[in-house]
Amino acid sequence: MVKAMEDWEFSSFRDYAGLRNGTLCDFRLAESILGLKIEGFIEESRMIMRDDVQKLIH
User: Fold this and answer.
1) What does the pLDDT look like over 35-52, one tens digit per residue?
2) Is pTM, for the whole model, over 0.70?
3) Closest C-alpha among 25, 13, 1, 26 to residue 56
4) 14 within 8 A of 20, measured Cβ to Cβ
């Protein structure tokens, strides 16, 4: 377990937030199945994210 979601190596959060350029998640599939939009995901995540990590997100 980790204290912050951005610290979990296998979380798709890192891909959505632009902290990793990987292939862990399929953005189009997540959008079609979950209705998950990257813009909404990042904004909602910022509410619970540490300040130093928020500065890293573009």
Assistant:
1) 777 777 777 776 776 677
2) no
3) 13
4) yes
* Helix, strand counts (H, E) of the chain: 4, 0
**42-50 long-range Cβ contacts below 8 angstroms, 24+ apart:** 42/16, 42/17, 45/5, 45/13, 45/16, 45/17, 48/5, 49/4, 49/5, 49/6, 50/4, 50/6
pLDDT digits (tens, 9 = 90+) for 1-38: 777 777 888 877 788 778 888 777 787 887 888 777 77
CB 4 within 8 A of CB 49: yes
Q: What is the DSSP string of 1-20?
A: --SSGGG-TT-THHHHTTS-
CB atoms within 10 A of CB 48: 8
